[in-house]
User: What shape does this take?
Amino acid sequence: MRAGLEPDDPEAHFIHSIAALAAHLDQEAEDAMVRCADASNSWDRPTRTRQLTRLMAVRPNLTDGLMRLRQAFVARWDTTRVRP
Assistant: This one.
């Protein structure tokens, strides 16, 4: 997959995470979402959280998993944010 070939590409990890979630590979999905958060620039992070929220409307069968991924993403973002 692209995420393995391009480890600094947050979109690749995001796509990997969603694909893993759809395949019921919850831990792999969460790990990929953490890598997405780590690779994302600060200005991209709000967009990623909005994408996850929008996906819940498109894929209601994945809502619980998407909420967990969003929480993992935001939690990672909060721990890596620079504090004044």
The CA atoms of residues 17 and 47 lie 16 Å apart. The chain has a mean pLDDT of 87. Residues 2-80 form one domain. Helices lie at 2-5, 10-22, 26-39, 45-58, 63-80.
